[in-house]
Amino acid sequence: MLDLISLGECMIEFYCDGSISKAAHFHKAYGGDTLNTVVAAARLGSRTGFISKFGEDPFAPYLHEEIAAEGVDLACCPAVQGFNGLYLIALGEKGQREFTYYRTGSAAATLGPEELDAGYIRSARILHASGISQAISRSCRSAVRRAFQIAREAGVRTSYDPNFRPKLWSSNEAREALEEILPSTDIFLPSSPDETRQLLNTADAREIDGWARERGAQIVVIKEGEGGCVVVEDGMPRRVQSPSDIRVVDTSGAGDAFNGGFLHGLLRGLATLEAAELGAITAALKIQGRGAVRSLPGREAVAAAAQDKSWATRAVEFGSPAPSRSSKSLAAYVDGGSRGNPGAAGAGIHLELDGEPWRGLYEYVGIDTNNRAEYAALVRALEYALERGFRKIRVYSDSELLVRQIRGEYQVKNPGLLELYRKSVQLIQRFEQFSISHVPREQNRQADKLANKALDLRASGEETY
Q1: Confidence (pLDDT) at 327
Q2: CA distances from 210 to 69, 205, 262 (A)
Q3: How far apart are CA 202 and CA 195, in angstroms?
Q4: How far apart, in whole angstroms, are the C-alpha atoms of residue 422 and residue 416?
Q5: Known catalytic membership, residue 209
Q6: pLDDT score for 94
Q7: In terms of Cα–Cα distance, which of 40, 34, 84 is closest to 64?
Q8: Per-residue pLDDT for 318 more than 50?
Q9: How far from 174 is each of 99, 130, 171, CA to CA, in Å?
Q10: C-alpha 171: how far from chain center
Q11: In what side-by-side order are the strands of the sheet with 157-161?
Q12: Are 8 and 32 in contact (CB under 8 A)?
């Protein structure tokens, strides 16, 4: 049995810094609102699946490998003739976003109700869809309606996020689709004030809650961005604040991250308000990184952020563990450098899985020193491995100082390195097996290239080998 299944589209993401029209480089990733939701829940430990169609284009193998690696079941995502949708996203210095979509006629948009596997839907505890799932085509809208009917008949709870996008359809069309699906919806997750004003002509929490419950919803959570969310209980609005002291980098997919955390919480037996707190924490951690999926937090990060919550242990311990790659042998070659020391600094991480090149990460650190850039590379490698379920790692560095300090052979006397050293040790303690070794510079060339790429581009990104 799966905990959570969603229905919708998966798209290729290309993101850049600055204007799309002026960007010289784009970084490849993927995303899609309902897919982001199940990946967020999977990283917290839920067993998830996705219903869609993938186009047989050059991106198809990448999508299958990446999504399956998150532990998301793709049994109902056949590859068909056609293409996968694509979107470009630019991020300004203050976090403002610019989107351009190419999705009309994509493979995902051809999904119809006759193609649904009723048995697969019945195997879930919650089925999730969105207004975007309905808006991309008439056949998809029919598929969402039929999927919710199948779920309801089988006693599977249903979850719906309007996620209104004016470029996809008018507010009247979206309202009509909302009225169509709400009688079959258990959990309603709208955003306010903009979305609810356009669809319901109100931003009042009591009015939104009453309107949805009159049409069949049992749980209503109103998302308000940086303001957190509102849950109405016994006619009284209860606000859940977002965590403070958050450094906002990219808000793309924040609502999807909230949905994933919230639904995971419900699945683990949390009360509605407790699950809303989990959703708010998940969203807050997500917006501190780039990409709709790449920056979704894992259980360790969420547990650390929620350690003062009474429900934290339950949210982490309930259910089956997150997808594990503990049997795989992961090697991380790390390097960092600064042009000026201090000066513009970058970190590079070359990852090998079972002896074969797997991923390349490059991080622009900002103005910093060589040694701090070396530590930044180590920290990023450890975080990336933990987020993806690895519990055994071998690290290689050409920095003798870094290696000897981590081994305890040298003391950390520089106050500027002490914080990064402590963070590294905390991360290392989460691994079942860890080793770090010194290698000559010529054996660390790939990591060095990635660090220089971060410096040349003044950007961060990821490569798939």
Answers
A1: 55
A2: 41, 8, 21
A3: 9
A4: 11
A5: no
A6: 54
A7: 84
A8: no
A9: 20, 11, 5
A10: 28
A11: 72-76, 48-51, 2-7, 124-130, 157-161, 187-188, 219-223, 229-233, 236-240
A12: yes
The full DSSP string for 171-203 is HHHHHHHHHHHGGG-SEE--BTTHHHHHHHS--
Residue 321 gets which letter from DSSP? P
The number of beta carbons lying within 10 Å of the beta carbon of residue 29 is 22
The catalytic position among 3, 256, 335, 398 is 256
- 267-281, 316-330, 412-426: range with lowest mean pLDDT: 316-330
Enumerate residues 6+ apart whose C-beta is below 8 A from 85.
Answer: 9, 10, 11, 12, 32, 101, 102, 103, 106, 108, 109
Distance CA 345, CA 4 (A): 41
Q: From the CB of residue 170, how many other CB atoms can be counted at a distance below 10 Å?
A: 11
Distance CA 253, CA 108 (A): 19
| 336-374 tens-digit pLDDT | 999 999 999 999 999 999 888 999 999 998 899 999 999
| Local structure of 19: helix, strand or coil | coil
CB within 8 Å of 354: residues ≥ 6 apart? 328, 329
Shortest CA distance to 366 belongs to which of 285, 460, 287, 288? 460
Domains in the chain with CATH codes:
2-317 (3.40.1190.20), 330-464 (3.30.420.10)
Q: What is the pTM of this model?
A: 0.72
Q: CB under 8 Å to 357, separation ≥6 — which residues?
A: 350, 351, 446, 465
pLDDT in tens, 376-407: 999 999 988 887 878 899 999 999 999 999 99
What secondary structure letter does DSSP report for 323?
P
Q: Pick left, alpha or beta for residue 389 (phi over 0 → left; psi -120 to 50 → alpha; otherwise beta).
A: left
Q: Are strands 48-51 and 157-161 parallel, antiparallel or unpaired?
A: unpaired
Widest Cα–Cα separation across the chain: 69
Helices (H) and strands (E) in the chain, counts: 16, 21
Q: Which helix (H) or strand (E) holds 280?
A: helix 272-286
Q: Does the pLDDT value for residue 319 go beyond 50?
A: no
